[in-house]
Amino acid sequence: MAAAAAGGKIKTVVVLVMENRSFDHMLGWMKSLNPEIDGVTGDEINHLDAADPTSRAIRFGDGAEYVDPDPGHSMQAIYEQFYIFHKSF
Length: 89
Hints:
Blueprint: H1 2-7, H2 21-26, E1 45-47, E2 57-59, H3 75-83
Antiparallel strand pairs: 1-2
């Protein structure tokens, strides 16, 4: 850290934990105001079954149905978010 601070090149550090959902919900659309923001474009999709890329695609956008307002915070829910579709972990 001391070397980075001495150089003075780092202006902002953002730490996202688990998922990018909060950023997208709160700030993702700000890309339309500032193209340098790595936000959402409206072309994003999630598959209904993340393990099956041929399953129904759910599109991101202003008209998207808001299904789950808050992912679970229990140990089981966290385990599922990390590992259920990521067998390589």
